[in-house]
Write a structure and sequence with these properties.
heterodimer; A: 233 residues; alpha/beta; Rossmann fold; nine-stranded mixed sheet; B: 81 residues; alpha+beta; Mth169, Chain: A; three-stranded antiparallel sheet; 28% strand
Chain lengths: 233, 81
């Protein structure tokens, strides 16, 4: 099993993702510069957080045109796993790999703190190993995490079980007070219909060591690893 | 030949920056405004020998595929000789 972490100009959570994948997930991992177009040796890609292209125009808007992104689309079309975190989520939305868009936080602030996450669908390759009903504690760090989509898209997301994570309080209640950015229906992470592409605003790679306040991010990486292992036999 | 492209948030999409600007304007003592929405403006220089139709098509293509995100934004193109 091999992971790739895509590096755009301005990515800054690439090393965190690399660290977690190599140290805690314990799998081979490469950095993939955004000009690379051959992704054939990888089972899963992380599109990491940061400020690709300085967030010029819109967050994630210019990264979509990097040469690697066509390869990422083909990679996803083959059913392989693509995991967008924060700016990576924004990029996947801009690239059309996930529906909707992420706009400026409701209160305009850059919000950087631990939040609570409810796992809304435990039946995805990214959440299968999360203990049922567990409320995850994972940090967010973004100014554009306010998820928006039209009513039809929202209905499809709900009906298809594509809403994977919602912001909640420490008891798992999904309330407006627990919504850090104004995201529609407290959406923090969604997947595509095939469940092989996931985007989330919170940073699970920053929640893999007790020293940093939480280990809950490991549940997500462990789920993905186990899924890939079962596919690869 | 120049194309002017205006990108605006679709009606109903929250514009917290516009709201903050509106609030600041009210602090100036100007109270007769009901709303401010922030958008983006682009000037694209095009080859002088393009026809107006070709120039418009080119600018629309750029606006649709790069400058605006159709999920949240509308755009309008003006061609100026």
């Amino acid at each position: 099993m091999k992971f790739g972490v895509i590096v755009f100009p301005g990515s800054n959570c690439d090393h965190d993702a690399y660290h977690v994948l190599s140290k805690h997930v314990g799998q081979p991992v490469d950095f993939i510069w955004h000009k690379q177009t051959d992704l054939s040796e990888y089972d899963a890609l992380v599109v990491p957080g940061g400020f690709s292209y300085g967030d010029y125009l819109r967050a994630g808007a210019l990264a979509r045109f990097s040469p690697v992104m066509n390869a990422v689309k083909n990679f996803a079309a083959q059913g392989k796993f693509v995991f967008g975190i924060c700016n990576g989520f924004q990029i996947l939305c801009e690239a059309g790999l996930l529906p909707g868009a992420l706009i400026r936080n409701r209160d305009l602030h850059f919000v950087c703190r631990h939040i609570h996450l409810s796992v809304e669908n435990e039946n995805t390759p990214f959440t299968s190993e999360v203990e049922s009903g567990k409320v995850l504690s994972i940090p967010i760090a973004h100014a554009e995490g306010n998820y928006v989509c039209d009513d039809e898209t929202f209905q499809n997301l709900e009906e298809n079980g594509q809403i994977v994570f919602r912001y909640c309080d420490e008891n798992g209640a999904i309330t407006d007070a627990a919504n850090p950015n104004g995201a529609r229906s407290n959406i923090a992470g969604i997947c595509n219909e095939n469940r092989n592409v996931l985007g989330m605003m919170p940073h699970p790679e920053r929640a893999c060591e007790g020293l940093l306040g939480s280990n809950d991010g490991r549940d997500i990486f462990r789920s993905l690893t186990k899924t890939i292992a079962s596919i690869n036999g | 030949m120049k194309a002017k492209v205006y990108v605006t948030l679709k009606p109903g999409v929250l514009d917290p920056q516009g709201k903050a600007i509106h609030h600041s304007v009210e602090l100036l003592g100007i109270e007769e405004i009901t709303d401010i929405r922030q958008g983006k403006y682009f000037e694209i220089a095009l080859d002088a020998d393009l026809s107006e139709t070709d120039a418009r098509n080119t600018a629309e293509n750029i606006a649709k595929n790069v400058l605006a995100n159709p999920v949240i934004e509308d755009y309008r193109v003006e061609i100026v000789r």
